[in-house]
Design brief:
With about 140 residues, this protein is α+β, with helices and mostly antiparallel strands. The chain is about 30% helix and about 30% strand. Helix 2 (about 30-40) packs across helix 3.
């Protein structure tokens, strides 16, 4: 089995937040302004992003300033998008992409999905294959 690098989950943004990230300008933001622009709490800037290396500057009054363009580039490098292959799923217990063991195809309403199990911890992993919404 190939060695898989750890996926950093703490501080990862959702889909709408990633879209807002694209709209950041090449200007300095206070942590509170950055939090409002993207849609998370100011606390996340201080507790997650700055400790793991978010590019920021401090002025002579010790105020933190973050350049929007540099933050976007740093975020995309630190939290790369990962793709899950057809026979894989993301185990929430192991926090990694795993091959599904004994996947069973099921349908509920307009949702077609596989139910598989993590080979490491045995957790049930659902994997959506298709929905009626995708076909419309």
């Amino acid at each position: 089995m190939e060695k898989q690098e750890a996926i950093l989950l703490r501080g990862r943004l959702g889909g709408k937040q990633r879209l807002r990230l694209e709209k950041l300008l090449d200007m300095l933001y206070k942590p509170s302004e950055l939090a409002v622009e993207i849609g998370f709490t100011q606390r996340q800037v201080y507790r997650v992003y700055i400790p793991i290396g978010c590019p920021h500057d401090k002025d002579d009054r010790r105020h933190i300033w973050i350049n929007g363009k540099r933050f976007r580039e740093w975020y995309e490098a630190t939290y790369p998008r990962f793709t899950v292959k057809e026979n894989e799923g993301f185990c929430l217990t192991c926090k990694r992409v795993v091959n599904l063991e004994k996947p069973v195809k099921e349908k509920k309403g307009g949702l077609l999905y596989w139910i598989g199990y993590c080979p490491k911890c045995g957790r049930k992993i659902p994997r959506i294959i298709d929905t009626d919404k995708r076909r419309e």
